[in-house]
Amino acid sequence: MDEVLLEPPQPVSKQIFTVAGISVAVYGLDDLSPDVREVACLWLLHPRLQTQACMTPLAATTLTSWNKSEESKTVGLLAITFDHHRAIATNIVLGVSLGGHSAWQCLFHDARVSAAVIVIGCPDYFSLMSDRARLSKLSSWIDGPTPGTQFLGSRDFPPGLVKAVELHDPAAMLLGKLKGGSFRQVEQKVPSPVEQAKLLPLMKRCIQGKRILNLSGSADKLVPYRCGEAFIEWLRVAAAPGSWFAGSVHIENIVFDNVGHQMTPGMVVEAIHFIERTLSDHLTNRAARSTKI
Prior knowledge:
The protein has 293 residues and is an alpha/beta fold.
């Protein structure tokens, strides 16, 4: 069951706006300092089978923490949520479960998204669905000389879906450029010079200059960390100091021991700190640019 576990937060202002027929909740508008020079937006994407209302405690807790900081007098923070179905978000995005999957998509496909917090989400749809097919013992998984080799492209995962995933899924988009043309055949963490030449334009377009916080539970059975681990580790190695994509993307990855498919208070703390660091870094970088001008 998808859960967001939080203590009752300190209340913050909330206003409802209808945008293109969608009810959008905006938190913190009345709490902005009169001296703010700009406003950052944190888009909160709810888990599957839930509504925007379940993100209210996270919105209130995050805004309360940021509004206590000195930086909040310069950069205001709003939290925005709505009932979504594979929706596209902007600026800083935080997603839980299904929202976490969506947050990976937003990060890679919307140039306006500069940072993302992914909570119990997965960047590797092939791996996640293959794992579920295995656990469900689908005939399309069992059939064939080796279990699993016939699943992708079967009636349970048709060719049209395979092609769509290859075009849009973060793991398939990048790891599919490696040896053999398939992320499932990756044998090395560092791409060859030829592979790097293929990857760099795509990675620069999708994630250069962006920040990522991935939060997972080691005991999550619905979205197991292992399903996205290979891609996350590959991306982390690529972005490490001295590596071939060093300094181009900031990635933090935290796996919480004995935590299942839920957002825990510890995850909330990490998410808030990441958002605050992101906004503080934005202020620092803006000041540096102003000094150069």
